[in-house]
Amino acid sequence: MHPSTADIAGVFRAEHGRAVAVLARVFGDLDIAEDAVQEAFAAAVEKWPDAGLPPSPAGWIIMTARNRAIDRLRREASREDKHAQAALLHAQDEPLEEGVVRDDRLRLIFTCCHPALALNVRVALTLRLLGGLTTAEIARAFLVPEATMAQRLVRAKAKIRTAGIPYRVPYEADLPERVRGVLAVVYLIFNEGYAASSGDELIRSELCLEAIRLGRLLVSLMPDEPEAVGLLALMLLQESRRPARVGPDGSLIPLPQQDRSLWDRGLVSEGQDLVRRCLRRGAPGPYQLQAAINAVHSDATSASDTAWDQIVQLYDHLLALTPTPIVALNRAVAVAELDGPLAALALIDDLDLGNYYLFHAIRADLLTRLHRLPEAVAAYDTAITLTTNTTEKAFLTHQRAQVTNP
């Protein structure tokens, strides 16, 4: 087979994280690993179109990267470069072993998501090293200049090196907390794609798909971690609704008004199967419960058919595990469907969410349903002011106009 440039790009995206993970162990340095993998893929672009795909593209990339890195380090070591000398010594003690690739990728995940790094840095490193996204792609996704993102990545790798952040899977006592941190990074990536925090577009599908790919990787590497399974189920069920969330004109369509025939039934089925797998384990966690809530939504053929009593019960469990104002706000939305808007309004009015635009948007909807229109308009005004996404701002502005000019 003679691959096209697109085929090689697909191999790059699929195998970049694996290759960097192996080379980071071999040389003990993320910069050396990443540069070597980039050189290997550049060589692949030159050779594979004529020579064809090798039997093991990942193995070819890893071996080529290792050889290129060693050649470069030998040249630098001969010039008394202490860093190159150390990397060469490290490589002599770390042979390439296919059997440890699983552990290598876990080590890289936990290094990228180390709590000593700022959250936005963890996200950027995960997308760069594990996802293989270019610096320009990450910068574009998070609406920052490419130079800013490049500096962020350089500083992050320097901090890993100078602060001695270990390249290893955490000790057993630290593992649950560190796993939660990893899952939080992946879900943050998904959420930024699912409902962009700023910019003109509501959805950035490339981030959603990358987060799901990372979620699948985590489940394959940690099959006994139920919250990893729960997170993957949650993302799949939410992603299944993407075709129905935006109208032909780019406008936002909320869940009750969505054309459910547009939902991706394959993703729904896979997500529901994973939720059932979680339920059989009997160790519910926050991601599993959120996935179960979304599974109930996906069971309903219309908004009016939704089993709101089940959703409220699931939110009760979720609120007991994570008693946050956001969970309480989402539970109140379900209570409004079960017990009416007045009951829901009483639940949310004391929540400390004054700077959260959705709090005001939900209040505005409840107040509208109670025919308290001046209060609803004021709530919409606050929500519109706090919203930084153009599509969501347009939706809220339209809702406000419906109140003032029904």
From TrEMBL:
Residues 178-278 form the DUF6596 domain. Keywords: Sigma factor, Transcription, Transcription regulation. GO terms for biological process: DNA-templated transcription initiation. Pfam families: DUF6596, Sigma70_r2, Sigma70_r4_2. One of its GO terms (molecular function) is sigma factor activity. Transmembrane segments: none annotated. InterPro entries: DUF6596, RNA_pol_sigma-70_dom, RNA_pol_sigma70_r2, RNA_pol_sigma70_r4_t2, RNA_pol_sigma_r2, RNA_pol_sigma_r3/r4-like, WH-like_DNA-bd_sf. Residues 12-77 form the RNA polymerase sigma-70 region domain. Residues 109-160 form the RNA polymerase sigma factor 70 region 4 type domain. Belongs to the sigma-70 factor family. ECF subfamily. This is RNA polymerase ECF family sigma subunit.
